[in-house]
Amino acid sequence: MGCTTLLVGKKASFDGSTMMARNEDAPAGSFTAKKWIVVDPENQPKHYQAVLSGFSIDLPEKPLRYTAMPNALPDQGFWGEAGVNEANVAMTETETITSNARVLGADPLVPDGIGEEDMLLLVLPYIRSAREGVERLGSLLEKYGTYEKNGVGFQDVDEIWWLETIGGHHWIARRVPDDGYVVMPNQQGIDSFDLEDALGRQESHMCSSDLAVFIRKNHLALTMDPDGELPDLRKQDSFDARAAFGSRDDADHTYNTPRAWFIHRYFNSAAFKWDGPDADFRPESDDLPWCLIPQTKITVEDVKYVLSSHYQGTPYDCYGRFGTEAAGKYRPVGINRNNFLALTQLRPYADKARRAVEWIAEGSNVFNAFVPFYANVTKTPAYLAETGKNPDSSQFYWANRLIGALADAHFGRCASIIERYQKAVAARAAAFLHESDSLPLGRKAAAVLEGCNEKMAAMAREETDDCLGKVLYEASDAMKNAYARSDS
What we know:
Blueprint: E1 3-8, E2 18-25, E3 37-39, E4 47-49, E5 56-58, E6 66-68, E7 82-84, E8 90-96, H1 101-106, H2 119-123, H3 130-144, E9 150-155, E10 160-166, E11 170-175, E12 181-184, E13 192-193, H4 195-198, E14 205-207, H5 211-217, E15 239-240, H6 241-245, H7 250-255, H8 257-267, E16 291-292, H9 300-306, E17 338-346, E18 356-362, E19 371-374, H10 382-385, H11 396-409, H12 411-437, H13 445-477
Antiparallel strand pairs: 1-2, 1-12, 2-17, 3-6, 4-5, 7-8, 8-9, 9-10, 10-11, 11-14, 12-16, 13-15, 17-18, 18-19
Helix pairs in contact: 11-13, 12-13
């Protein structure tokens, strides 16, 4: 399933928050309607049975409350995707990633293992730090295996960790530097990896316990070495994990690396040359860095912009006004199949009840708006929680699906409407958030925050309905059977 992830360390963000964001994209051929809910401890299953595989497991006692973005329809399983638990720990899963035949031959995928359907429900209710999230998921992967290749993010107020599955049972994880950001398209991404740290102190790297033996036994190390052995483990960042475990094929050059190229180009426009025959990095470069330090600190608005991008300002823009031959060559980040975008922002300056803010947009990101909600609540607004099977403009998901489908076909006529909608929601949301942050909570903190979320949802619905009406008029006015003469 196509997705794009952005991870922002606390010293790289505008306000000292850790920020973790990911688009979930639907598979081709169907809608995958989503909803935003809270799972209370009494509703967390004690025994879990997967729908898509034969996997089942008894779960630990005393789960934490958590939010999730599951499928609206349960026929394919839970697919929790993104959420925050009551300990202010967040998880996003998964970024479908690539591998190679050498890895999958050495450690084949496990048909009855765990996958994207399962991971959030199995991990998020039982962890109290990002590091614990890596440890729990890693232990599950080693014991039960996985039937797909995935990247998973974990976040607390101090740290963000990124875990990638390696074959059926192995995995690596790396801590995002505090002053850096990470871009992940659908590709194995971690490049330099310190095996000595991962198998020892685990300060910034972690991995499955037998990874060094696995690499040696299966000749996976591709770094040039005079003796043909595994690179010196004493050398910091000496192992090239991307070369060993990842891919660099033609499909990557049209589907994956161009997305990372555009986002890096946005955050580091002056640090490298991105365009022309002598560019440092091009859309098809295999050596795009996993992590960079941004030129300026990254805001929520920046996150929304890059995760909605369609190569604007380049010859590859699928909405380009001048119709270059390169338009549409590469898969955009903001695509018709975006289900939702969730950004978890953990704010160190806020009290614990208000620390976690979950920003949500649904439908195609080119045409939707970002809305923030407090995560430490016991229920979510019906506008987001009660998504049904059939299109219904009274539901946030479907209203945005309708806006996107109408506006895409009439991009030039509707672009200014969409821009005003997105700016209006952003400004009003910021004002609501400032106002809500100053409210006294008392003993009924959850109830107060739920009231704030209801007001935020009402604002989002007002602006979304207004946008839908205007886009519908423009699309109707441009119908093929339009005629200039009117009988009015």
